[in-house]
Amino acid sequence: MVLGSFLIYALLAAGQDTQNQSQNQALDRQFQSAVAQYNAGHLADAATQLESLLPYSQKNFEVHELLGLVYAGLSEDAKAAEQLQIATRLKPDSALARTNLATALLHSGKPELAEEQFRKALDLEPRDYDANHNLGEFYIQSKKITDAIPLLEKAQQARPSYDNGYDLALAYLLTGQLDNARQLVNSLEQIKNTGELHNLMGQIEEKDGKVVVAVNEYETAAHMDPSEDNLFDWGSELLLHRTYEPAIDVFTWGVQHYPNSPRLSIGLGMALYSRGKYDDAVKALLKAADLNPSDPRCYLFLSKAYDSSPNQAEDVIQRFRRFAELQPKNADALYYYAISLWKGKRAEDPTLNLQQVQSLLERSITLDPKLAEAYLQLGNLYADQRDYAKSIPEYEAALKLNPNLSDAHYRLGQDYVHTGQKDRAQGEFDVYQRLRAQHLAEVDKERAEVQQFVYSAKIAPSAKQ
Predict the structure, then answer these.
(1) Where are the transmembrane segments (predicted)?
(2) Which of 111, 236, 366, 422 could be disulfide-bonded to 454 (CB atoms 3.0-4.6 Å)?
């Protein structure tokens, strides 16, 4: 908002004596001082001066408008909205005043009223860049992407700009208009070539199935702007498409630049695990667990890596114990703790009392009756004790939930052998051999787990503010 000079005394009754005119000139100087304080960022001082002017300027648009903006800058949203509402009543044909009020209402948690004011601003100036852009961005923030597109298009036609163009390209991407998105990003590069544009182009190409092009765009984005987001997006794209060594290099670079980023450490651990470097994977995932002990995403991969590399048993058990203590109602947390405790201690002490492991597995099943792996491991625990009357039902329960658990078929077959049910045993071994030969179920499962982590950890592109 550009504020010029105005004379408060001109708004008072005419014919004042010289003394009153002198007083009014002093009030005007006070207003100009408040403007200077506002422009200098001294908002509290500006508020004090403007508040003292209110008794003399109840119907003055500029005073209420500026005080509203000052309150907004101080994050006093309710006060800001009150003053800006007065300003719009005093000057209802000001699109800028409507926009300022809409912004204050939005910050006050009143999006419906904010939308009404954004619309009134657009009605006043239907071809104006700001009026179209502001309402369009409001719709993007409100997830009304389809409503945003025509407004952002009008704004871009009125005045081509990087920020509005980025929002529009993002909207095209989110609505599947990939050719429009690609064309607009290419044109925006002529205005300002940035890392975030190449990251956005990477997402466009990824969604269009052009994997190599997408990777190249993510790489360019990371080199231009090695932010945590850009490095993660580049590394995760490589990880998703199983180019593990380059993914390890990118995530290693990322962890060096952002040592406190849990998702980069998880990404590094996943890439190392996928490449068969299990000891290093465990180390990376232990670090991720320490950076954010309540984040459940790293524990799945820590459990997998630990299963192939039990050399750091005490450290792993300690992390899983902490996770279980932090989330005692989380079935996965109890399951991971049980398996880590059983695996680690069993290697040191074959006579270990397994009551704690059994209790943890049973509690995890109680919390999540669909956790097939918990039934499988409980069956293994009973089978190791040759209690086949208990182990067989656990294996059957696991397979009812997930028929593709090859280990459950094999262990159930073994139990059938021990109980003299050879025909049933052979049937389970046949299924096991078929699943192992296909190897598809496990590959698909691991791919889905990687995808779930990547997509949950990615920061969605956001509109320009």
Answers:
(1) none
(2) 236
